[in-house]
Amino acid sequence: MTAESRSIRPRRVISRHAPSRASTVVPMSSPGVTPLDLPDAPPELADARVKAWHEAVTIPTYVPDEPSAYPAFLEARVYQGSSGKVYPLPMTERIAEEPVDVAWDAVHLENEWVRLMVLPELGGRIHVGRDKVRDYDFFYRNDVIKPALVGLAGPWVSGGVELNWPQHHRPATYLPVTTTIEHDEATGAVTLWCSDHDPLLRMKGMHGVRLHPDKAVVELVVRLHNRTELPQTFLWWANVAAEVHEEYQSFFPPDVHYVADHANRATVSFPAASGPYYGVDYPARVDAEHPDADRLDWYRNIRVPTSYMVLETAGEFFGGYDHRAGAGFVHWADRHVSPGKKQWTWGTEPFGRAWDRNLSDSGAPYVELMAGVYTNNQPDFTWLAPGETRTFSQVWYPIGGIGPAQAATLDAAARMEGSSEGVRVAVAVTSPQAGALVELARNGETVWSTTADLDPATPLLTTADVEAEGLTLTVRAADGSPLLRLAPAEAGEAEVPPPAHEPPPPADVASADELYVIGTHLEQYRHATRSPEDWWGEALRRDPGDARCNRAMGERRYRAGAYEEAETFLRAGLARERSLNLNPRDGEAHHLLGLVLLRLDRPDEAREWLARAAWDGHWAPAALTRLAVLDLAAGQDAAAVERLERVLADRK
Predict the structure, then answer these.
(1) Distance from CA of residue 259 to its chain's centroid?
(2) Separation between Cα atoms, residue 354 and residue 45, nearest integer Å
(3) Low-confidence ranges of the chain (pLDDT < 50)
(4) Cα(651)–Cα(509) distance, rounded to whole angstroms?
(5) What is the 3 state secondary structure string of 102-162?
(6) pTM for this entry
(7) How many helices (DSSP H) and strands (DSSP E) are in the chain?
(8) Contact 128/141 with Cβ under 8 angstroms?
């Protein structure tokens, strides 16, 4: 493999516009909004099957003011359902009211089917995703950079694909990333790596935007690394925007029968809402002129800013389809890693349309079709252990002509529906498939089949003269390997689950075990206004030796820099854990006490506790790494190398 690294150069302001304040907001179809001009690939890349190059792009930009010089100690700020604390990040409080032309550093990737543009100075977001076959932007292309004060630390822009971690909206969404272009000489794939450090918790995140030479697929490869000595919480969601209108439809797998709000505060049936949701009585809006006004998958029906998150599905895909353009996109990922599937929009009422205008000079409305890992809801967080790295990937690909997909894999997407002439069969593929076999079967017996030469520009669109009832559609490559299977939808609908409930106050919780679990939930989800210490403290009031709550309180005090208090809690918990067994199953408290003693400048004591923590395989990497640091500080280089080699050997 070969790689080319690139540091971010300062942005260049080229010229200043002087429109009136009113002229900065224009209708969506206004000729005053200039489409973003994408440069052609350099001549030296003419023969490359996947092209990747740096070339600045000039974009009208509403520049944020300099951040406030005063720290924002927003300890109880609620943001996206979790804590909105931003320190030590500075807060930006104003955005310019008039645009200037700015030359933004941009990385362009292109193959036969797809054109991408990534902006490293805006968190490495994918700003353009274009279907070259249909000359269609399957991701919303915002032709201006017009931030609003929506982000965690202020500026946030709409459009494209924003990669959010370790919380939403990403702390570094308006900060630069370091880029490296990597060429895989064996496969011909090209990956643009974007790397940054989380400015709040010091973790490291990387996402690689990858194009393959023979696929109409945008692959995103992600690496998340906890470089700290403590467990850290995180969420990861790809925020994918699609420009919409009255004929734009989102689609989820057919087995999705209900969706939920943030933190499951409300639930409703899907795609037809059986009752009110977000204050809108959707069934009451159905009439002869609007027979589908209760359908939540059509943008035109969503009145107010609304989230819809899938709670249960066996499907591994979802996406959006523009019926007016006959084009759209599919997202696909392993559901065991990436179960999160969400739709969100500002809505069609004046409030939502005002926000559309606030974020783009075209006033273009959009939906966000978001994909999350290790969770199906927001603001759910999961854990990264000290030194742990998580890796995963997911893909998007454009589709055309087939309508909203009813089944999709990494290789193909399909739809079938009955008509007066038979069954309409539509199949799109992500790579050339000469001699693909498409079959319809009923009760295991083939009733119709055809072969076709398919590729990303040539879907199969045909009608089979058979009855529609009980059919299964299968697509196979010419060598017989399966590409896709679409089975009949199961009859009936699942019962809509009730919304989540708040935990009771500490005094009303029956057991210490429940108190510990509630406190851990509040800590894991970064609750903005409720402290887990209230629940753990109640458990310790009932039982001062409770090992788990003492460990939890000790960690909280360590994070807060109250090291003497942390030591007291940890020693109390360890006294219980070690009362019968000096080698308990979990070494976390030993590791924490070692860290506390280091902060208290008692390294010899710290060594003993860290060494005991290393007896636990889960905590051995963190403990051995910290011991190696102590060895290096003491000039014991050989001992440090030996410990680190043990860590690396255990991870192979």
Answers:
(1) 18
(2) 43
(3) 8-31
(4) 41
(5) EEECCEEEECCCEEEEEEHHHCCEEEEEEECCCCEECCCCCCCECCEEEECCEEECCCCEE
(6) 0.93
(7) 9, 40
(8) yes
